């Protein structure tokens, strides 16, 4: 969910940085400390690992009450709630956003706990890597699984996400069925709705009402990412300098990044990405095999597809397209060139797709 504000920041709203009117500061952490034997880079494409942290810091008492998530004290520490990979092509003209289930079955590397005790490698769900060792352990676990090198790390929090949505004047979503979710406490009739920051948090946290758990929640998160991108790149935002600057400032204030992500890097990237449109952004979930997998004492985890997932990561590593256009063989009687056949084995969507239409 919080990934959404960075997805927007890295893929579209970042262009406003070129205006030189941004005042927000970005909190930095050393996300790559102690990492060795990392994957080789095969291109100059950029990979961002986006993590949503469920820290309550920054939320008012009224917002905590509206979300029904308890107090800051009752949720001390930070837990990984959402993960996404954002791949930006070497030409900076295309992007792929891959949702990573937090329940993905993973081998968590050997690491030291808070007391300095060495903990051997063990199987668990991938979000355990973040819970046990923060950004460095999560990056190491993901890189080991995907053989894809992470260039930058971004973490987004509850309060920042709500501010991003409110800076845009709310986000429009469409739900095909009634929502009455017992955990997020979101109640929406089927139809089109414009959600404020707090209701948007509820929407992207919803996971109980449809029986799909995290899979359904990721689908709604992808829908929301697309809606944010459409709003952020609309004329009403891009041509309104006050709204644009407020949006970028709120996005930057919402995130914590690795120490290597510099403001100058963002400005350079912004200039390269001015032509990026929502039709050039594809969203998908890492291909899965068994939706619920039990092994090595880890229950109710999800398993990446052993064929399609490695192919996806290899394509991104080599900066190749995630969909194929196959030219059909001409028939003897053909008098004109046949249209290419689109092969989309990863079931992607474009950020321009609008479920409300």
Describe what you observe in this structure:
The protein is α+β, with helices and mostly antiparallel strands and 357 residues long. The chain contains 10 helices and 20 strands. The strands form 7 sheets. The protein has an 8-stranded mixed beta sheet with strand order 1-14-9-2-3-4-15-20, with helices on both faces. Strands 5-8 form a two-stranded antiparallel sheet. It has a two-stranded antiparallel sheet with strand order 6-7. A hairpin with a 6-residue loop joins strand 3 (80-88) and strand 4. The protein is globular, with a radius of gyration of 20 Å.
Q: Fill in the CATH topology.
A: Aminopeptidase
Specify the CATH homologous superfamily. LCP protein
Largest sheet entry: 8 strands, mixed
Number of strands: 20
Total of DSSP H or I helical runs spanning 4+ residues: 10
Pfam family, one: LytR_cpsA_psr
